[in-house]
Design brief:
There is one protein chain. This protein is of the alpha+beta class. The chain has five domains: 279 residues, no CATH class; 131 residues, no CATH class; 237 residues, no CATH class; 157 residues, no CATH class; 169 residues, no CATH class. It has 28 helices and 33 strands. It has a nine-stranded mixed beta sheet with strand order 29-30-28-31-15-14-32-13-33. α14 crosses α15. It is found in: Cell membrane. This is ABC3 transporter permease C-terminal domain-containing protein. InterPro entries: ABC3_permease_C. It comes from Cellulomonas pakistanensis. It is a multi-pass membrane protein.
Length: 1083
């Protein structure tokens, strides 16, 4: 039998293939669609994620990946010391970055050298720099770059200067300059002669992607009027200029010594695995202690600046999330493909049932029949597999051509990737098993009832329970990647299985209604649907397809909305400019020009809150935000019933402080006062004045004068403002005067008693100010520290149009060693500073509305009170933070004599000139750019691509399955149709009966599947949506249901199903004949 069977099998298989060519073509098409979907998901999971990972790291730019090690050798270090440091620092840093390769560049700076006397009080300092990689970071505007061939001689050292340095020092190519040693340069020659050969303009100073100038001492600004003076440990300030760029290798011959050695390594992560990125990130995180151990006493200070660990962590997390989304789409596609192939296998088994029974009667064994079925299935799937490879490549190329995907850096692969062939091979094996499985059933086997049905119901409940547990785990914090993948798949399958239990119940209700009807088409369709419901596999395929497609659309809508909301929370204004060069008032002029006048100064810095002073890493440090809350439009979604206006209503001061402020002349940025004072003490006393001046646009700076003796004589005191004071429209006003009283000799407690002190501070008002300017009361009070010391009592102030006069009683002995400060302000004494705190800060500190806390600003701790609690604060969405009104914060700080500038950043409108700000050296962040990166960044667009692929695959496989089921039912119902036609039913009525039955059941299945997808999307889509760092998004993601998308999917499924069923039904009625009647009688 075996030999004879082997001879007959090929002829039998070929004969069946010819006779059942349409059926085999339909099954092959089903396998082809399934393999194409799986292969496309595989390409997106492998080549697509690889491209996206490389594109994400490339988009991070140098600023996100560069590792900069800045080493300060001991004072007196020379070029030989730097030459020994560079290779060792490079080796240690390269070892930390392993296994990633890296390119290295080195900068070497001299210490600050004294400029020649020019008649001013402080001519300032300059420094030389040996920088070999300035070609793309500077543009030569005059002269030439120093020539390395001319270096090393006995003549002056050739240098190129930034344009700002040349303008400030009045230098041009051909000019010479002599530099002298400073306290920071003990190894420098007595005289270092330099000759200017070129002038250049620094480029990309504010571009985070190319942070070359971040290595420079002055950040490429060229001038710093308030730099720490050498030898004073930062206590005094002097102008600093530079860099004076020398030819490569020429710093050694200049004889200046070495001040700083900077080694920058830029890793090349292209093609690196996620594991390699994580390994390199861990190594870089340990780089600073590794350098300290390696260099020992050869380095006074070592600083490592890099964002690489954070970039690597965020990239790895987003890579995993994108992979989870693709796997989710792939697994749903696998479930749909398995259902479609099981349906195809059943169709083949049903069509060949009589033939199989005949072969069994002639002595064929079940193994032989399974072998025949397996061979035929392998042939069918083999053909589909061969065709699936080019089709999957074409589908992937079409996906990569979508602008959103192409813009993320995902490109079509070259040639045929091995992963594609492997995916098709594995999928083909699974499809063969799915096709052969129905043929393995015993002939004539019936569905079991009773205990088996109860067991199946128990299995359904178990599946639902597992899905619920996975969903709960997903909604908890930090779910594993496996949970991200399995939870939505299990939930979709469980929901679809439950729906299968509901549809027959609806059919029973339709049957009861049909029994009472006298019509033909609708009652017969209802009776047929109730008594002979469609196959469970076919119904599951349609329900799961509708659920999966609508879930994908809902998740995509939720994801997209959340990214836009996260951008609003991360970037508090349309444009945020930070690190703006110049003094606060000079910054104001620059940003107002760029923003056409609409610029708000902002405080944005790390702080502490009483006992909650941060001691951890920077990413955990609480933030202090302050802005004019009356003018700023805070953005970001809040819980229902809560608004930013309501939260910040109690923050701004109630009165207008500028009403009582006194105008002051500030022409050319020069400020001066006339000061006189007397004391009743026999011991010498003095006072140090400081003015807090507003530029008329909300920017307040401190103008500090030198100490003046209280001897009754009037003296002109020049006031210094770091970086200079700019008020181009003449709107400068004095808000406050701070007087620090000193006893010039140290006295024992009680010596000298209490003395009356009177101080008069006057200045020149601007022309036309008149006596009416500044009409309003001023107040005088000691700082909290002074009041605690009891060194000053009964302070009073009198105000005039050109100054203020203050009196008070001073404890002479305590004023010799304790702070004794009187603060004269144009505003009333402040109550505790009202603030809004974030929920995490309130929970961690046990704070509620009305509770007191202290906010650290500079060297002062300001008393504050909680006015409201917010879920988060714009601009500090990922950490605890506190928000205050900038005017109220300024008042509270001034009251404690904390008069340092509070401006850290600027909030600008969307039409601000971003390029001008970047060219000036500012760091600029655009909310639109951040939103675009969050929504369509290289790694994040993979989520949307996977969800789009899920929708397309679900619709395609559902339509293929519907076609297979229509073919199956058409064959089974031939005799039934013949009987109906024989008893007088019209062909149109019979066709209408079966069309109505299909349409009604399809409508119920699609509606139920859409509802299941909506439920799963509402429950899981927010948990599947993450932030750029892989954590929970802020604000929390809300489920978004897109009715247009859901309606379109449902319409496609119903229209496609109708397009398949109508021709099949028409053909069934047309082919019904007496042969079917005889076949029906026989059965």
């Amino acid at each position: 039998m075996t030999a004879a069977w082997a001879r007959e099998v090929p002829a039998l298989a070929l004969h069946r293939a010819r006779a059942q060519a349409p059926l085999l073509a339909a099954v092959t098409a089903t396998a082809l669609v399934a393999l194409t979907v799986l292969a496309t998901c595989g390409l997106l999971l492998t080549a697509g994620r690889r491209d996206a990972l490389d594109a994400a790291l490339a988009a991070a730019g140098t600023g996100g990946t560069q590792v900069v090690a800045r080493v300060v050798p001991p004072a007196g270090a020379v070029a030989a010391d730097a030459g020994a440091l560079v290779p060792e620092v490079t080796a240690v840093a390269a070892d930390a970055l392993a296994p990633l390769p890296a390119t290295v560049s080195t900068w070497t700076e001299s210490p600050l050298l004294a400029l020649p006397e020019d008649g001013s009080e402080d001519p300032g300092y300059a420094y030389l720099t040996d920088a070999a990689d300035l070609a793309g970071a500077a543009r030569l505007v005059e002269g030439a770059w120093p020539d390395a061939a001319a270096a090393g001689g006995s003549g002056p050292v050739d240098v190129a200067l930034p344009a700002a340095t040349a303008a400030a020092l009045g230098l041009a190519p051909g000019d010479a300059l002599d530099l002298a040693p400073s306290p920071d340069a003990p190894a420098a020659a007595d005289r270092t002669a330099v000759r200017v050969v070129g002038v250049f303009q620094p480029l990309h100073r504010g571009d985070a992607g190319t942070p070359v100038w971040a290595r420079d001492l002055l950040g490429g600004a060229g001038v710093d009027p308030g730099h720490a003076r050498p030898g004073t440990s930062g206590r005094q300030q002097s102008p600093a200029y530079g860099p004076l760029v020398v030819a490569p290798g020429a710093l050694a011959s200049a004889g200046t010594g070495v001040g700083v050695v900077t080694v920058a390594l830029r890793p090349d992560p292209a093609g690196a695995s996620v594991a390699a990125l994580r390994e390199a990130a861990e190594g870089v995180a340990r780089l600073r202690p590794a350098l300290a151990d390696a260099l020992g006493e050869r380095a006074d200070r070592t600083v490592v600046r890099t964002s690489f660990p954070a970039t690597a962590r965020a990239t790895a997390t987003q890579h995993a999330v994108a992979g989870a989304a693709v796997l989710t789409a792939g697994l749903v596609g696998v479930a749909l493909a398995a259902a479609a192939l099981l349906l195809a296998g059943r169709l083949l088994a049903a069509r060949r049932g009589p033939e199989r029974a005949l072969l069994l009667d002639r002595g064929a064994g079940r193994r032989q029949l399974l072998g025949l079925a397996g061979a035929e299935a392998a042939a069918v799937v083999g053909v589909a597999g061969v065709l699936a490879v080019p089709l999957a490549l074409a589908a992937y190329r079409a996906l990569a051509a979508v602008p959103l995907v192409a813009g993320a850096g995902i490109a079509p692969p070259e040639g045929v990737p091995g992963s594609l062939v492997a995916t098709v091979g594995v999928g083909a094996v699974g499809l063969v098993l799915a096709l052969v499985a129905p043929a393995a059933r015993r002939p004539g086997a019936r569905r079991a009832t009773g205990p088996s049905r109860l067991a199946r119901s128990g299995g359904d409940l178990l599946l639902v329970a597992v899905a619920v547990l996975a969903a709960l785990r997903l909604r908890s914090d930090a779910p594993a990647d496996a949970v991200r993948v399995l939870a939505p798949v299990l939930a979709l399958v469980a929901a679809s299985v439950l729906v299968l239990r509901v549809v027959p119940l609806l059919g029973g209700a339709a049957e009861r209604g049909a029994r009472r009807s006298r019509r033909f088409v609708l009652p017969l369709a209802a009776l047929d649907a109730a008594r002979r419901p469609r196959a469970a596999v076919a119904l599951l395929l349609l329900v799961l397809a509708a659920a999966g497609a609508t879930f994908g659309a809902g998740w995509a809508a939720t994801w997209s909305r959340s990214q836009a909301e996260q951008a609003e929370a991360l970037v508090p204004a349309a444009v945020v400019a930070s690190d703006v060069p110049g003094s606060p008032t000079a910054q104001g002029v620059l940003v107002r020009d760029a923003a056409r006048g609409a610029a708000l100064p902002v405080t944005d810095r790390g702080t502490g809150f009483g006992t909650l002073v941060a001691s951890g890493p920077d990413e955990a440090q609480p933030r202090l935000l302050a802005v004019d809350t009356g003018a700023a439009e805070l953005t970001g979604r809040l819980p229902d019933g809560t608004t930013w206006a309501g939260l910040t209503a109690g923050l701004p001061p109630a009165d207008g402080e500028l009403v009582a402020a006194l105008p002051v002349r500030a022409e050319g940025g020069d400020l001066a006062v006339r000061l006189s004072g007397t004391t009743g003490s026999e011991h010498p006393m003095s006072v140090t004045p400081a003015l807090v001046v507003d530029d008329g646009h909300g920017v307040r700076v401190r103008a500090l004068g030198d100490r003046v003796p209280l001897d009754g004589a009037e003296r002109v005191v020049d006031l210094a403002t770091p970086g200079g004071f700019v008020a181009p429209d003449g709107g400068a006003r004095v808000l406050a005067v701070v007087l620090r009283v000193h006893t010039d000799v140290v006295l024992d407690e009680g010596v000298g008693g209490v003395a009356d002190v009177a101080v008069r501070v006057a200045w020149d008002p601007p022309p036309g100010a008149g006596d009416a300017a500044g009409a309003g009361p001023w107040s005088a009070r000691p700082t909290a520290a002074t009041a605690e010391n009891q060194s000053l009592s009964r302070p009073e102030v009198e105000v005039g149009p050109d100054g203020v006069s203050a009196t008070g009683e001073v404890d002479v002995s305590r004023a010799s060693y304790l702070p004794t400060v009187a603060v004269l302000t144009s505003f009333a004494p402040t109550a505790p500073l009202p603030v809004v705190v974030t929920e995490d800060l309130a929970a961690g500190a046990g704070l509620r509305v009305g509770d007191p806390l202290e906010v650290a600003v500079g060297g002062a701790s300001l008393p504050a009170a909680v006015a409201a609690v917010a879920p988060y604060l714009p601009g500090a969405a990922d950490r605890p933070a506190v928000l205050a009104d900038l005017r109220a914060l300024s008042r509270a700080a001034i009251a404690e004599a904390e008069t340092a500038p509070l401006v850290d950043a600027w909030w600008l409108p969307a039409d601000a000139d971003v390029d001008a700000l970047r060219d000036a050296g500012a760091q600029v962040t655009s909310r639109a750019a951040v939103a675009g990166d969050l929504a369509a960044g290289p790694l994040r667009v993979g989520v949307l691509a996977a969800l789009g692929l899920l929708v397309v695959a679900a619709v395609a496989l559902a339509l293929v399955g519907t076609a297979l089921h229509a073919a199956e039912t058409a064959e089974d119902r031939g005799p039934e149709v013949a009987r109906l036609l024989a008893v007088g039913a019209s062909p149109r009525a019979v066709a209408g009966t079966y069309v109505v039955q299909h349409v009604v059941v399809d409508l119920l299945a699609v509606a139920a599947g859409t509802a299941a997808g909506a439920v799963v999307a509402r429950a899981l889509a927010p948990a599947l949506t993450i932030s750029a760092t892989g954590g929970r998004p802020v604000p929390e993601a809300l489920p978004v249901w897109s009715w247009p998308a859901a309606g379109t999917i449902a319409a496609l499924l119903l229209a496609g199903s109708a397009a398949v069923v109508l021709p099949a039904t028409a053909a069934l009625v047309r082919r019904a004949s007496a042969a079917h009647l005889r076949l029906g009688d026989a059965t």
